[in-house]
Amino acid sequence: MSDEEDEELLDYSRLLKKTRAPKRGNKSTDTTTELDQRSVEITRNALFECIQVKPNLPKQCSRGQLNQLSTPYWTTITVSKGTHLRTVGFANKGMVTLFPEEAAFLVSRDALVVTNQDDQVLKFQDFCMMLCDQDTDGWITFDKYQVYAYLKRLGYIVLRSKYSVPVTKEIDSPDNTTATSLWDLFCRYLSCWIYKNNRLPLVWDYKYSSYREIYSTLQIIPSSPWYKPFYKSLCRTFDWDVYKPTSSFKKKEPGVPDFRVIVNNIHDHIPSLHEQNQLFSQLVGVPNNSYQPVKNTELKEFGGGPTFVMALVGDAEGVSFLRMIGDGLADIA
């Protein structure tokens, strides 16, 4: 780079269509020195004017109102424009309502203008302060928002995760499809009264009195090392349900998410083996076709296990993602 390019001033006045600032030279005349100082002052003032200029909001900009008097700090949409609200928000008292992370992201993209109860326009910095406050809604944190915003910028549809247990379809047995006549009921009641000692209930709830009735209530449970029917899970659940962008997406019936994400700070400990097993237990029976394996990085025998994504948030490292795959080991101790 030449010395002439090094000495050239950054002319911010061009942005305001003002006079072009000349290059600074080595002339020692007073007139030239004063001219250079005047040009530098004009450029400096132009810089401050450019910083203070407020960006023009797009025409397709929605508007909402935030109630900061009570938690949770939800934003109610008053004017809806554009397609930004198609995949965000929920219905509350007949109005489209946004969670704090959804409103903050739209404000950062200049797609939403939010005012408080005093009709003051809130900035993105105001939402960041709310996201850092643990009393915002008791769930959202700034780490979770960083993951949310990262995935939204990539084009994914991101919703708060809902804990769901796979529902097994009930199979109708031949006995259930056969109608019970009054004669059968009379014979059953009579036999129970005559052979009282032989017809005692066989289970604790006194509901069934024959082996056929007990066998009809059995269900087929998928084999899983994480299945514990009498254990109440106390560990955390997933944070975000992530969907690939599609035109047929519906907020009321989003369906099974393509990815389930749990957020963890890079300075915190990784979930223990017991916590990971409980997370895998929530994915039993859920397809994981969207978790495409990275080439030459995954063993084939582990490719069919339950899978989720762990997002690690750092101060300067940004957001990193780990793919966690259940290998079927319940205990390695």
TrEMBL record:
Residue ranges with Basic residues bias: 17-26
A single Gene Ontology CC term: tRNA-intron endonuclease complex
Highest taxon of source: Eukaryota
Species the sequence originates in: Thamnidium elegans
Domain tRNA-splicing endonuclease subunit Sen54 N-terminal residue range list: 76-114
Protein name, UniProt field: tRNA-splicing endonuclease subunit Sen54 N-terminal domain-containing protein
GO-annotated biological processes: tRNA-type intron splice site recognition and cleavage
Family: Belongs to the SEN54 family.
Chain positions covered by the region annotation Disordered: 17-36
Entry-linked Pfam families: tRNA_int_end_N2 (PF12928)
